[in-house]
Amino acid sequence: MSVHSTPQPRRFSFRAAAVFAVALSSCLMLVSGLVLIAAPSGRLAREVDWTLVGLDRSGWGVLHLAGSVLFVAVVFWHLLLHAAVVKNLLWNAAAHSVSHRRELAVAAVAVTLVAALAVLDLPPASWLRALMGFMRRDFWQDG
User: Fold this and answer.
1) 142: pLDDT strictly greater than 60
2) HEC profile of 42-58
3) Residue 58 and residue 89: Cα distance in Å, rounded?
4) Looking at 11-127, which runs of residues are DSSP E strands?
5) I want to staple 32 with a disulfide (CB 3.0 to 4.6 A). Which of 62, 64, 77, 90 is the partner?
């Protein structure tokens, strides 16, 4: 007869919690953002008393903003917990130079491009504005 020891509970992992918090807060922002795109405009939403899962448009806006603040906070938390990894990704101590220059450049260009497209109201970012306009003007007016 073998003796089985009871498994010890794992210690809480702040690193795993940070990764899950980043992922889940991203999902929250995605869902709330999609709802805000699809929801009727503020005036129409009030007139028809529009809600989704108990939240009106204003509630969804607050949820989206709160999720965004949470996302920023957990990203900073994640970066602090993984500071050594981030430092190694950015700086090659042996070569005394910036590491992963191409990856950093691609990420910076992607973020800059998305921001510029949104600010200049150019496709594909402008398509989101068009989709919101369609949902507010046409979809909800015909419904």
Assistant:
1) no
2) HHHHHHCCCCECCECHH
3) 41
4) 91-92, 97-98
5) 64
Query: Residues 6 or more apart from 24 whose CB is under 8 A from it?
Result: none
In this prediction, residue 85 carries a pLDDT of 86
DSSP state of 81: H
**Between 57-81 and 14-38, two packed helices, what is the crossing angle to 10 degrees?**
150
Helices (H) and strands (E) in the chain, counts: 7, 2
Distance of alpha carbon 117 from alpha carbon 110, whole angstroms: 10
Q: Would you say 67 and 32 are in contact if contact means Cβ atoms under 8 Å apart?
A: yes
The answer, as to whether pTM is greater than 0.70, is yes
Higher-pLDDT residue of 143 and 16 is 16
Is 117 within 8 Å of 126 (Cβ atoms)? Answer: yes
- Each residue of 93-117: pLDDT tens digit? 666 677 788 888 999 999 999 999 9
CA distance 30 to 11: 31
Task: Please say whether the beta carbons of 99 and 91 come within 8 A.
Answer: yes
Average pLDDT over residues 36-58: 91
From CA 127, how far away is CA 134, in angstroms rounded?
A: 10
